[in-house]
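Sample entry was shown:
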Amino acid sequence: MDSFAASACRALLILSTSSYAAGAAYAQAPAYPAKPVRMIIALAPGGGVDTTGRFIAQKLSEAWGQPVVADNRPGAGGSIAAEVVARAAPDGYTMLMTSAGIAITPSIMKLAYDPLKDLLPVTMAVVSPGVMVVHPSLPVKNVKELIAFAKARPGELFFSSSGQGSAQHLTMELFMQMTGLKMTHVPYKGTAPSVTDVVAGRIALTVASVISTRPMFTAGKLRAIAVVGPKRTPALPEYPTIAESGVPGFGVENWYALFLPGGTDRQIAVRIQQAVTRMLTEPAASKLLLGQGLDAAGNSQEEFAKLYAGEIAKWGKVVQTIGLKVN
């Protein structure tokens, strides 16, 4: 055999061996998911985060042919559930379903995990749009009128929230910082009593989800003046945003989102994100969510990671400005 033929044989042998090794490695790589997946839900059963998480879990189970099992771990502003996921194996078989409060807790609590390193953002699944509501006796019909009315009465208007350091509380603090208003905060233990006292006229205004306030303002017991998100919501298309109403740059979204343990292969995160986005944008799913006062989101893994980091920084500044102590 001449030298050219010998070289060709050696090259062919190397190519064949490499192809076999690559094929064997591919054949041995398990498909994801190859076993049941656990979804840790950061809030109690029955709420929006829980029902949305269970809906996604059911749809993923159907799409993957593997059970996605919901496991509620409420408490401590969602940090209990987040810690469970942060300390789980980074293999894609433990995921977190939580709310936008996860971006607030680093500023108001001492955490046993690093919120940026120990959790991998996957996607913002849905948005629970918020609305600013006032008692009908308040002589304001829009945000500009509210600002003028409140500026003439510094500290006299009371606003309620679901608790000290809650998303509702900090949304109003951000609103006051951006408008120069001074109003008095009255914290409650939950959204329901917070809204109830606005209906009763004991509190002037609050911000809360569309789903928790719509029955009251459609019945005339409250007056909705603007949505608090950065863009209008299909749930209330006729209502402007606060940004449109004289506070440029204002926008707060209460989102429900999925996370994985930090260090998880990003390809797994992308696969979950694509599956969730696909299911939530189906017409039947979008209609179902809209009926619950939710807007399907499904942004990319990179977009959500950037937004999550920005939210932590934003709320950190708000908390620092008002001097809220870290627990």
Observations:
- The two ends are 80 Å apart (CA to CA).
- The first strand starts at residue 37 and ends at 41.
- The CA atoms of residues 109 and 327 lie 5 Å apart.
